[in-house]
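Data deposition worksheet. Section B asks for the primary sequence of the deposited chain exactly as it was used as input, without tags or linkers unless they were present during the calculation. Section C holds the resulting structure in token form. Section D is free text for depositor observations; keep each observation to a single sentence. Incomplete worksheets are returned to the depositor.
Section A, Depositor: J.P.
Section B:
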Amino acid sequence: MTYRYLLFYKPYDVLSQFSDDLKIEKPSGSNPQTSSQAVAADDQNRRTLKDYIPVPDVYPVGRLDRDSEGLMLLTNHGQVQHRLSDPRYAHRRTYWVQVERIPDEVALQQLRSGVSVKNYRTRPAQVRLLTDEPDLPPRHPPIRFRKAVPTAWLEVTITEGRNRQVRRMTAAVGHPTLRLVRVAIANLRLEGLAPGQWRDLTAFEQSQLLRL
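Section C:
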């Protein structure tokens, strides 16, 4: 069997799966007819990996939320999928995160030490405040922010991948996430890809990946 390993730059508002089998709940208290029409329209507009990647029989390693952007790894190598998805192996994932307001050192240290979200406490993380805004393509649509409220960018590296974890972490310390871009998975980086583009791993990247 020939194994394939692909890197993909997932744009905003794209599902990290090849088929759209999710159910959308109608907003509570809304007009049933209007809600069903809105849901139907949204259903038809939900983009998936199939809209970008024509390679058969590869599957994403982990997930990236619909409202998040950035690096995804896809492969048909089951063992690699398992090792990178299982939290027991603690592989690094790095994100650039735009948050409301400027976090102080107390908030940064809380994120580094671990915070309580939902019914669990996050593992220690590497967190630093970026002095400059990252060089990223504009998001479509742009983020909604309040003119009177400043924003900041953090670089956050975690070793677990719970549902919406980074967003919940920043919210827990009083800095809601406005934009989230995954820039690295283990040794693999986002550089060189534009939103919607994909490529095969180089021989060097593949050898490093298989050493994990």
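Section D:
The chain has two domains: 1-89+190-212, 92-185.
The chain has a mean pLDDT of 89.
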